[in-house]
């Protein structure tokens, strides 16, 4: 239930300074919820910012406060792990527009105290990154050893390199893209329409009511979830296997394992995510096109980033952000003289590979963060 | 509106004989709506059955009675066209379970006269084909020169060859598969959940009410429509182009052309299709697996079909029913000694290529139907 979600307390800071937005609007102040792991060293040179994906959060390596499940990248972040918290001060902030403590559509209106809902301004990936920079200013961290992210997290890492190249040693961009394709936008639009078609959405003003658009949000999640997996992965994991009773019901229950799995994914999602936040963040992703302010020349976005070291990783079975998008980024980086290493990894899990057990990814991330210091 | 849809009169016949179903249930009688084009010759040897796809209908080459648009395969069927109605008697029947005049969930209960809704039994592709065979019996047509279909129409053509190989000269199977994959099932399940999540669905008993689950059906159509197009095709057709006003709204209107297109596709669909029919037909497709009754050996389905001439066509950009599925069918046919020709065509339109302007497909279909008689 969305209402319980908003009762969770998160570590956060409210920065009493305006955040100008790409829309031309401005937030008078901005609240950022974040988690950190590992000690910041004396010269504050060992900070690594992890940027999370669409439905991720700041609980990268700690149990999720709503679900109790381990952090979404606990396999990657921790003592002795590829992003080694014995060496690095790891920061992960809930993105602007999300629902885990940072400013978003569930935030109160300054005047009335009521949740803003759709009165919250539409935000962009660039706005998310500027909010993260304000958090780092607040924490007294002038420069990041690295920014790391997969999927929408990778978009933020790219946007960091475009907006703040001088604050950045390296950028690690995994399973991502410099723009949303027509197909990416189309799938997101299906999800938004599913939410907005749910009468419990109530034009986004459901927070005070006993109802929330959980059915619409579940359908949105189901559609999106298919795009996170590969066709071959789905076949291997489920194929046409039936549920335990092993007979077709000749009805509309979940006969196939893949149906049951998808229904579970949809329902479980509504326990940990807010429908309006889903609308806002998908919109930010659809608006993302780093080349747009540079007349479509992606290299223009990286004009100041030639001293940032880039590491890009794609997965051969990722049809959401296919390898060609990473190649396009690498070409733009090379054209401005930035150091960019790129690997396409083979992994069966589709787009979700960046979250899963792919040892080659661990080695690349550890290597990109540099040997012992 | 679904209610107006059900007021349309269709040419149909009600056959007063039971239709035993794969579910074990039985329809006491079956109504089949159909259209035909071209004259049946004296020895009744020139009949070609066209099987339509999920949301298709019998109006293959005549204007659609609800939308007024030309028939869905008017480019393929007509005098002098690849399926030449100067030579062939072309029959197309609305599939069992659909909403254009054949028996389906909107049909009246024999006892009460009220629409059956979800009391209509779940049907299969095999059931659809047996209903078509009953229509041919009624029309006095013992044997088909050919059966032709794309997508779900191709599944029916394959099921014809499996069930009635002796009534068939040739089978032309386009952009199809012998089973639904996990990913295919997953996308259909999203659509069904979108419909059933709509409170206007009312457990399927919406026919008498002033409300129908048009929002849920539109979302289902949007999700499915993406799967009918290729990623490259979407990029070429829409890319990231904005609507006419050419600026981002920083809101949730359809800013991108692809959003507007998808919304239109979703809405327009609800004028010509019934939500319950969508549930039943997607279920029939998901249940489709010709190899299942033969311990997973597809060749077993074609044991009696070695004298049927098969023509299979796939499209290189079709990721819904990819070429590998057609190859699998060809291998099974070859193993039983059936003549099977197979071509993968290059076309940019994804799965929808079978409906669109692909001249090579025209030549293949015309050739498969044989030279002048």
UniProtKB/TrEMBL annotation, chains A, B:
Entry keyword annotation includes Cell division: no
Record's keyword terms, sorted: Acyltransferase, Amino-acid biosynthesis, Cytoplasm, Methionine biosynthesis, Transferase
Record-linked Gene3D superfamilies: 1.10.1740.110, alpha/beta hydrolase
UniProt pathway: Amino-acid biosynthesis; L-methionine biosynthesis via de novo pathway; O-acetyl-L-homoserine from L-homoserine: step 1/1
Active-site residues, record numbering mapped to chain: 151, 318, 351
Known partners and oligomeric status: Homodimer.
Function statement: Transfers an acetyl group from acetyl-CoA to L-homoserine, forming acetyl-L-homoserine.
Protein name: Homoserine O-acetyltransferase
Source taxonomy: Bacteria, Pseudomonadati, Pseudomonadota, Alphaproteobacteria, Sphingomonadales
Gene that this polypeptide is encoded by: metXA
């Amino acid at each position: 239930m969305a209402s319980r979600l908003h009762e969770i307390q998160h570590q956060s800071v409210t920065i009493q300074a305006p955040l100008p937005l790409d829309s031309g609007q401005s937030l008078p102040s901005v609240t950022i919820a974040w988690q950190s792991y590992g000690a910041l060293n004396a010269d504050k040179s060992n900070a690594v910012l992890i940027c999370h994906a669409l439905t991720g959060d700041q609980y990268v390596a700690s149990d999720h406060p709503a679900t109790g499940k381990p952090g979404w990248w606990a396999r990657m972040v921790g003592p002795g792990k590829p992003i080694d918290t014995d060496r690095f001060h790891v920061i992960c902030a809930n993105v602007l527009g999300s629902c885990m403590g940072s400013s978003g559509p569930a935030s109160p209106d300054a005047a009335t105290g009521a949740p803003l809902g759709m009165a919250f301004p539409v935000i962009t990936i660039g706005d998310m990154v500027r909010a993260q920079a304000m958090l780092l200013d607040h924490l007294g961290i002038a420069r990041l050893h690295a920014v790391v992210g997969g999927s929408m997290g990778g978009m933020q890492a790219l946007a960091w390199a475009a907006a703040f190249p001088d604050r950045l040693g390296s950028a690690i961009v995994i399973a991502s893209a410099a723009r949303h394709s027509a197909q990416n936008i189309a799938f997101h639009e299906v999800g938004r329409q599913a939410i907005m078609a749910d009468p419990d959405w109530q034009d986004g003003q459901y927070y005070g009511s006993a109802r929330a658009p959980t059915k619409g949000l579940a359908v949105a999640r189901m559609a999106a979830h298919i795009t996170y997996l590969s066709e071959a992965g789905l076949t291997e994991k489920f194929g046409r296997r039936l549920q335990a009773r092993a007979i077709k019901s000749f009805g509309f229950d979940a006969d196939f394992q893949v149906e049951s799995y998808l229904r579970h994914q949809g329902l479980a999602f509504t326990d940990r995510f807010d429908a309006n936040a889903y609308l806002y963040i998908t919109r930010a992703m659809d608006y993302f096109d780093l080349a747009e302010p540079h007349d479509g020349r992606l290299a223009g976005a990286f004009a100041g980033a030639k001293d940032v070291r880039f590491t890009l990783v794609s997965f051969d079975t990722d049809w959401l952000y296919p390898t060609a998008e990473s190649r396009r980024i690498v070409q733009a980086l090379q054209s401005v003289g930035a150091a960019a290493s790129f690997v396409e990894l083979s992994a069966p899990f589709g787009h979700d590979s960046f979250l899963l057990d792919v040892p080659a990814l661990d080695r690349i991330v550890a290597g990109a963060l540099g040997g012992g210091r």
